[in-house]
Amino acid sequence: MKRTFFMILAIGLGLSSCDDDDMRNTDIPSVVINGFTQQFSNAKDLEWDKNADMYEAEFTVNNVEYQAFLNPDGTFDKYKYDFTYKALPQRVQAGIMKSFVRTKIEEVEVIEILGTSYYQVEFDEEPNDSKIIFDESGQVTSRISTW
Length: 147
Known about the structure:
The chain has three helices and seven strands; from the N terminus they run H-H-E-E-E-E-H-E-E-E. By secondary structure, the protein is an alpha+beta fold. It has one domain: Nuclear Transport Factor 2, Chain: A (Roll), CATH 3.10.450. The relative contact order is 0.11. The model is unreliable at about 1-20 (pLDDT under 50).
């Protein structure tokens, strides 16, 4: 009897954890939708979520994954997208090679904040990966936090 109860409980918990907590477009204020579509009219696979007073959008553009945070007034706080090492500006590649030449790169993303690009590089380190932000000049910066 106890075994059956725990099996049913485990299955129930497993199924409830699969619930989709994304918001529907109809739950997002029109000013936020309009601000988003002005910037990303060709977005696909759009999913919305809300974190505190910010609206978070996850989507793809031309098979590139994006993540964006919008303010309640529809303006962008910041967004980021996947990038390749080879496409990084030469200054950023030089900054990486200067200090991280022996560390394998796991992922590269561009973070856009108020028209300024930052480059978030995730390094494969043991026991935990680390994320470092580079500015456009190739310098490590702590002015913005990793995301």
